[in-house]
Structure formats: C-alpha cells, structure tokens
C-alpha cells in the first residue's frame, strides 16, 4: 500500500488517468484548468502545508481568544451576513456545476463506475473541484467570526475544518474518484447551512424545524459518506489511480464519525469538548430537540 507521500498519477511517463468522459453541455470561459499536470504536481509537492496551515490556524484562533478575553464582543452583523451569503451562493453554484458530471455517471453508469472514474481533469467539474479545495481554506474564517463575537467554541469545530481541509487537499494529489461524492454532499450541506446562517443574521425568525433540517442534512451527509466508504472497500476494479481512495478511508471514516458526534454532541456527549461553563449550563436546560438544534452556530 502506498504511503501518503507516494503518488502514481502523472509520475514518470504516466499521462493517463482513469476519469469520466462526460462532456458538459455548456461552460463558461474561465471554467477550466489550463495546466492539469502542473496543478496536480503542485498538490503532491505541497499538500503537507495543509497541516502547517491547520496548526497556524489553531494557534491564531487561540491567540485571538486570549486577546478578546477582556474585551466586549464585536457585532459584525453586516460582515457576517455578507460572508454567509457569499458562501451560500458559492455552494449553490458549485453544487449545480460540479454535480452534473458526478450525477450523470452515478445514475447512468452505476456506483462502481463513479467510484473508479474521477471527473475529467479537462472539464468544468475539475475546475470546481479545485475551487472546492480553495474554499476549505477560506472557510477557516468561520472561526474568526465566532471568537470575535465571543460565541461558545467547541473543539470539534476546529477538528471539522482541519480534517476537511487536509483530506480535500490530499485527495487532490491523485484525483480521488470517491471524493466526488464527498464534494457533492458537502456542497449540498453548505448550500442549506450557509443560507440558513445568512437568513438568521439578516433577522428572519425561522421555525425550529428549519434548524432541525440543517442538522438532519449534516447527519445524513455522514451516513451517505460511510456508505460510499463501504462501496469503495467492496469495489474490486478501482484501478491504480484510485488506490489512494482506499488508503484514505481511515481519514475520511474518522471525519464522518466526527460529523456524527458533532450532530448528536448535545445529547450523547453533553459538556465534552465545550469551552466554558456557560454553554454547558445552557445545554442542560434544553429539551432533546432543542439540544440537537443548538449545534447550529448562534447567528444572532
């Protein structure tokens, strides 16, 4: 089994990849990657810096928390509204553009085909998969809003951003085909999640079931992700390029386990990984459904 720093795609004289042949009906001029080989080699040579960024991210957040300990919280209502609205719009467009390729292969060629064939590196989907990786870096900014507004921050919030960033970047090193399902599900979940955040910051009083729906979508994403891991482990003809998918299963499996714990944390692990007594007390006073809904970051 290859190590995390050993790659096959575009190595030596290899220029071929096992990818989809789906052709988009239309594409915008910028929706393409001009040098797919150069980008892939860049990810292979520098993916480990996603870990460096993760460490610096954690240290920076802790520093800001320290600096804010005796300061009043910032409101940041307008910046937060624009931030959430922008990420919601990006996620919706990304879902529509990226999932066209994956959806076509899944429903027309079957699960095994979609597990073994990555998106065409010359297609629109490849462009949006690159933007998806970049967005994981941008989304680290979510935490800055939380600490500047002095909202409760749990350890699993850090872990979520770090795990997704590292896994996404490393998957890009070999165009991991099962990652298409992860990208599609994540785009969908974030389309709903950031739209919900934006509407809440704007001042709309949404019913409780809306928050519950966001939680259900996040949890469903985890279960579907586990299902894809099982499908991948059972596939016999994944091809050489997609062996990275199998060796990456433990990482993605832990990530999906995190999603489950993050979703049911207020019920099953109340108080664990929570910084400060305020949130512990508040969670203890809510009923079961209110506790589950409480995982949605407070936007007001």
UniProtKB/TrEMBL annotation:
Localization (cell): Membrane
A GO term, aspect molecular function: fatty acid elongase activity
Question: What does the record give as the reaction this protein catalyses?
Answer: a very-long-chain acyl-CoA + malonyl-CoA + H(+) = a very-long-chain 3-oxoacyl-CoA + CO2 + CoA
What EC designation does it have? 2.3.1.199
Q: Which InterPro entries match?
A: ELO_CS, ELO_fam
Bilayer topology annotation: Multi-pass membrane protein
What biological process terms from GO does the record include? fatty acid elongation, monounsaturated fatty acid; fatty acid elongation, polyunsaturated fatty acid; fatty acid elongation, saturated fatty acid; sphingolipid biosynthetic process; very long-chain fatty acid biosynthetic process
What PROSITE patterns does the record point to? ELO
Record's Gene Ontology CC terms? Answer: endoplasmic reticulum membrane
Which EC class does it fall in? Answer: transferase
The domain of life for this entry's organism is Eukaryota
Looking at the UniProt entry, the stretches that span the membrane are 80-98, 125-148
- Provide the alphabetized UniProt keywords: Fatty acid biosynthesis, Fatty acid metabolism, Lipid biosynthesis, Lipid metabolism, Membrane, Transferase, Transmembrane, Transmembrane helix
What's the family?
Answer: Belongs to the ELO family.
Protein name, entry field: Elongation of very long chain fatty acids protein
Organism equals Globodera rostochiensis (Golden nematode worm)
């Amino acid at each position: 089994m290859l190590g995390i720093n050993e790659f096959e795609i575009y190595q030596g004289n290899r220029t071929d990849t096992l990818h989809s042949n789906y052709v988009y009906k239309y594409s915008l001029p910028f929706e393409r990657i001009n040098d797919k080989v150069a980008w892939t080699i860049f990810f292979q040579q520098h993916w480990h810096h996603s870990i460096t960024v993760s460490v610096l991210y954690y240290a920076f957040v802790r520093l800001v928390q320290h600096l804010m300990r005796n300061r009043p919280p910032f409101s940041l209502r307008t910046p937060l509204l624009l931030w959430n609205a922008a990420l919601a719009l990006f996620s919706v467009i990304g879902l529509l553009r990226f999932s066209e390729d994956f959806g076509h292969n899944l429903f027309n060629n079957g699960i095994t085909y979609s597990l073994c064939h990555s998106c065409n590196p010359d297609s629109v989907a490849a462009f949006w998969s690159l933007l998806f990786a970049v967005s994981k870096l941008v989304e680290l900014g979510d935490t800055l809003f939380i600490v500047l507004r002095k909202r409760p921050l749990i350890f699993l919030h850090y872990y979520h951003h770090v795990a997704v960033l590292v896994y996404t970047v490393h998957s890009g090193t070999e165009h991991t085909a099962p990652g298409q399902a992860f990208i599609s599900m994540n785009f969908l979940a974030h389309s709903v999640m950031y739209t919900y955040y934006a509407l809440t910051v704007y001042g709309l009083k949404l019913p409780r079931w809306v928050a519950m729906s966001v939680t259900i979508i996040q949890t469903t994403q985890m279960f579907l992700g586990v299902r894809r891991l099982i499908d991948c482990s059972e596939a016999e003809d994944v091809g050489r390029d997609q062996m990275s998918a199998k060796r990456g299963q433990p990482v993605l499996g832990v990530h999906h386990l995190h999603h489950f714990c993050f979703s049911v944390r207020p019920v099953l692990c109340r108080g664990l990984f929570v910084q400060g007594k305020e949130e512990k007390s508040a969670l203890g006073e809510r009923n079961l459904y209110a506790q589950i809904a409480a995982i949605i970051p407070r936007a007001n």
